[in-house]
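Q: How would the structure tokens look for this protein?
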Amino acid sequence: MRSQRQGRGGIFDTTLQGQKPEDSAEDLRQKKCLCGDPHRFSQCPHIIPSIRPDGWKPNPEVEKRIQRIIAKNANVRCGVKAARKHI
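A: Here is the predicted structure in token form.
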């Protein structure tokens, strides 16, 4: 006779390279932005000028790279447009 397991976990919880699945999902949400920092487009002062702190100045090289990527990639362009719309 087999015993019934109760609860969600078994003897061995599923992991991906030592991380639980919810950790992996968080990593996916925090992909690197076009500027290279780990945040969403809507949190990027390079992309959203209205969130720039007083005295903050953009890095010209990063600005050029961002503009180049936006010009070449329609999916990125759409994501940036959506981030700007919601702020």
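The helical segments are 21-29, 60-72, 74-85.

Residues 45 and 51 are 6 Å apart (CA to CA).

Upvote if useful.
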